[in-house]
């Protein structure tokens, strides 16, 4: 038994160290290993799904893109013939795949329809209003063609830039969300069925997994923050938030399944935070709005001041929700990737074997430690998001009794 | 080198936003209908059942203790009753014995009186008989005296004494 375990651990560690051989080591032959770029690539969303990283099985995903001048395009990302670093060897209808993301090439001379062979990609920095901006070029028939910015909504504020197309593809993160949702659905409906089948029996099996967490959220989060009378209405939302985030946090920790960084993606946390904001706002009682716009029981000249602070607070609350979760989970992924990156840093990107060995022996305990921490973080962050949501809802639906204050 | 400004996970993307919204809303509704509601209800029902069972157990316990105290009360009453009956029985015994003694005495005295009476009667009858006998004897003696004619005083006395002697023998 012990021997078998040791073998499994060795096998596991071998694969961890292999995980980034292609990503880091392969690149080393061309240029120096860049841990930051590697880490960011691995925690980014992508239009292909790479599992079993050491071997590098890249699964194509459906691409759904819209360009105002070109209309909708539906095709498989397999058309890009993704290779190392999830770079596509082919273009399709003017779209190319670089580092797993879809870009559009609008330069004249680049084939706007059909497939074309791409020889590679180049990266450079360009000055734009005194700021360094990343610029990518695709190499086609010996010529450099500039890639348009990725499909983002930030209008350039967060480095995205104005985009010429919109990407609605089923990406790696979307696939992960679907898989985790289906798994949770199976888990909970199975548990629900056994509750129906054996209503008077002690919980067992899946019920034993689901029930303690369910009861914990109900008894330690929903009831204390929202109140015994009103919590039922909000319980499904709190449960959905908790288990959705927890499931995705944990799914991202599983090695060789792509280590998707869904809850570390600001877009996903933003959507959940916006839903929380809407739920809080539409359920806000008169007292809640009164405390925001015209705080009772304070001198009149302070009221507008407090109103300004409270209105800001209204938006800062969901903002912190989304930043905290995305930041924590992304940071965890980056920490693990950085420790694994030690192998390549010490080994001169695979050129120096003894350095790699030293790096591996340093990286393994650090990575294992970080993974253990990340397991805790997965639970803590899901719990924190849920408990803060419950507290915001609780504050919004609370009805104050000013009766005793009126006597003063 | 990618500048850290281009931190792609933090760049909002329309596709992911759309799908995240759709998936989360679906997840929320389906989980609510198919899992959270039934589980929540089942847990609430189970908690109620447990509470009811506990309440019933407490009630049963109370009833048991009531029954026990009632039993004890009954037992105590029965003991008291027994003691009372014993006391009454003793009293009855004494009374019966006393009455019996009294009656026996009365009966005995009655018998004695009757016996006295009888004795008296017999005595009287005997007296009468004796008187009659004496009268007859006296007449017989007188007859004999008269018949034998008195030959002297001494003879006469002798004779009377003989007669008396004869009479005594009777």
Give a written overview of the molecule.
Chain A is built from eleven helices and twelve strands. In chain A, a hairpin with a 2-residue loop joins strand 10 (131-140) and strand 11 (143-146). Chain A starts with a helix and ends with a helix. In chain A, helix 5 (206-226) crosses helix 10. Chain A has helices spanning 2-19, 21-28, 35-43, 172-197, 206-226, 231-251, 266-283, 286-293, 303-346, 353-397, 403-406, and strands spanning 48-51, 57-60, 62-67, 71-76, 90-92, 95-98, 101-104, 115-117, 120-128, 131-140, 143-146, 166-167. Mean pLDDT of chain A is 82; it is low at 17-30 and 403-408. Chain B has one domain (16-169). The longest helix of chain B has 134 residues, at 14-147.
Largest sheet of chain A: 3 strands, antiparallel
What is the alpha-carbon Rg of chain B in Å?
66 Å
Mean pLDDT of chain B: 87
Mean pLDDT of chain A: 82
Q: Label the structural class of chain B.
A: mainly alpha
SS field, number of helical segments of chain A: 11
In what range is the share of β-strand residues of chain A?
5-15%
Largest sheet of chain B: none
> End-to-end span of chain A in angstroms?
75 Å
Between the first and last Cα atoms of chain B, what is the distance in angstroms?
183 Å
Number of domains of chain B: 1
H-E order of chain B:
HH
Concise synopsis of the structure shown:
With 408 residues, chain A is α+β, with helices and mostly antiparallel strands. Chain A has helices at 2-19, 21-28, 35-43, 172-197, 206-226, 231-251, 266-283, 286-293, 303-346, 353-397, 403-406; strands spanning 48-51, 57-60, 62-67, 71-76, 90-92, 95-98, 101-104, 115-117, 120-128, 131-140, 143-146, 166-167. Chain B has helices spanning 14-147, 153-169.
